[in-house]
Amino acid sequence: MIENLTLLEKAAMLSGKNIWESRAIPRHGVPSLFMSDGPHGVRKQLGSADHLGINASQKATCFPTAATVANSWDPALAEQIGEALGEEAASLEVDVLLGPGLNIKRSPLCGRNFEYFSEDPYLAGKMAAGYVRGIQSQGVAATPKHFAVNSQELRRMTTDSVLDERTLREIYLTAFEIVVREAEPRALMTSYNLVNGVYANENTFLLQKVLRDEWGFDGAVITDWGGGNDAVEGARAGSAIEMPSPGLDSVRQLVAAVQNGSLPEAELDARVTEVIELALAFRNPLDPVAPLDVAGHHRLAEHAAEQSIVLLKNDGGPSGGGLLPLAPGTRVAVIGDFAESPRYQGAGSSLVNPTRLTTTLDAIGATELELVDFARGFDRHGADDESLAAAAVLAAQSSDVVLLYLGLDEISESEGLDRSDMRMAPNQLALLGRLRAVNPNIVVVLSAGSAVEIPWLDDCAALVHGYLAGQAGAAALLNVITGAVNPSGKLAETYPIRHEDSPAFRYFPGTERTAEYREGPYVGYRYYDTANVPVRFPFGFGLSYTEFAYSDLTVTDTAVSFTVANTGPVDGAEIAQLYIGRTGPGVHRPAKELKGFVKVPLAAGEQRVVTIPLDDKAFRHFDIASDAWQVETAEYTVHVGASIADIRLTGTLAVQGTIAPITPAVPGPYDTASITDVSDADFAALLGREIPPAHWTPGPLGINDALCQMRDAKSPLAKLAYRILHRMLKKSEAAHKPDLNLLFLFNMPFRAIAKMTNGAVSLHMVEAILLIVNGHFVRGAGGLLRASLRNRRANAQTRKALQATA
């Protein structure tokens, strides 16, 4: 097939034909692929659509977000959700589902954390692999994203992630490695950012050396939407499809590169092969699609939420027991805007149009609780309203128990916008204090896709965290509150006491050219546990209505076995966690790292022997000197427990490794995890090179500078454009509704004007626009007119040539 394609046809296959579809080759039976967002539900837009979800999308089941499902610690459940996502994608004639997202939660402030699984790469990788297996079992390709080191939304299309290779591999690539090796995804999406000076989509180290040569990935690499920088360099590095359609300008660049010898045609052929294999590998569009079990998928969404809800506190009950579960007949007041209008998903490209949406007020009638009153209590966007608060106080006074629904609003968690702090709205916390004064029996039901500060923990008797629990989350939460379901979720991220305690506090976000990962490998619990920093809730923490005991630890070279017993009065499930740490001197590393886990369902009084294998990741570290994974010959401590801070069993294992223990060769901060204020000299020593300039260079703006930099442009027109864009953004924030298109425009580089307009604008036209922006209006306007005419003629000629081969 490749031999019978013209050079032009092959080049055309490496970019989309529109916003969501790849190019077809009808004469060879190669269909167009339809791609759709879908980390927690299929978002196939209706009619002509923008890529950020401003227009309506077809209805689909809105499952809990990845941040929520990660708390289940259950890859089998993830696979069930993946199967349902694949079924719905196939029913909507979607061939490639753009997800799951598995970037590491470097900071609690990343605006897209609700879409990601964990701060830990092992947990993230195992959960994401479950999604991929499930999606692809239904004849739909999964697309793990965003590869790689995409940890912030600010300047996400222009920022250079600067980090040492060991941290890169151990923390930010390991989750992708697990997915590629264990689930064999047919596609993978690159991130917008640069990684150590090279755009991820053009990064030969990432796409060739690591992804293909080391991990054996043989699928197609797809750009994030508008993430293509240089079509030729992308193809050379291993990127197969540029999305959305950049028009025919990229096609002509690829043809010219092959003709002038700068791109070997064999490289082009390799990319085309990957696209064809993706197009032919999965669902046959002519195959009949079974009718969807919409009700069944809603029940699965409810089950997924039940398994992922985390009980964080449970005091205040009779005789010193917990307030929860609530007994039948308990008189409750339901308070909070989120009980009436739930926060059940994040904002942005993952926004799903649910098949149905259950609210607390809908679901409470199916319980045996007696609803005394409902009060909104507060404005969800933070405005003070005494009448709402006063009504809530009256409702609390007349009830036995208050179910208070608190959370973050829509503008707090959104693609394209990082959070500014970890605090919740003051009006919500003020109401909590007033309610406590009249009724101490308060159950806070929290909705948030990211960690928040909880200085108010003493003001509630119980705290139930639902994260962003999907379209059936309200019913799932009530099932936990009433004891119909015993909570078993555990946190997949650490909750620090204050944002200032987090390891990347001084380094996040990168606000100009670079994002410096000065904390190195000490991300999340790896920092808190190693540096002995107190936290509000540790990684892996979660309560139950029963108790579990651990005993009989056995450690061998290949596995760890132990007994878990349910010693309490009700059935439940325990998530047992395996952590490993080296004893004695050697390469710098965290005190303990997650290396295995298992979710164990147990009836009351039941016990079970469980075994967790010690896989190839149990003891390894990446050794820069040998450019390879190595294991130090040393004694290692095996920790088994209910969380990183609740270790129940310990053992030791002498491991015959591949190298002798390494004398620490890094600056002191990294050997001791004292990484909150790393000096330039120490970071440079870790990098093994000079730190690249962090600030934008004064002078004319270039093709890869962001539109927001027009603030400092020479042209009064450019400055005016910046002010208008900035004003519109502030207006959308004041309305508490994130405008994804505005956020995208504000942070995107000038080149994206060409990449996102389906050929209407060429890169030569963008260069002319930049002349205007940099104060050369006459020369730029003339150049823009000439480049526009050339682009129109070239597009017409290219379209004609492609039609001639059809």
TrEMBL record:
Highest taxon in the source lineage: Bacteria
Biological process, per Gene Ontology: carbohydrate metabolic process
Residue span, Fibronectin type III-like domain: 574-644
GO molecular function term, any single one: beta-glucosidase activity
Keywords recorded for this protein, A-Z: Hydrolase
PANTHER family hit by this protein: BETA-GLUCOSIDASE
Role description: Catalyzes the hydrolysis of a non-reducing terminal alpha-L-arabinopyranosidic linkage in ginsenoside Rb2 (alpha-L-arabinopyranosyl-(1->6)-alpha-D-glucopyranosyl) to release alpha-D-glucopyranosyl (Rd). It is not able to hydrolyze alpha-L-arabinofuranosyl-(1->6)-alpha-D-glucopyranosyl (Rc).
Family: Belongs to the glycosyl hydrolase 3 family.
Protein name (database record): Exo-alpha-(1->6)-L-arabinopyranosidase
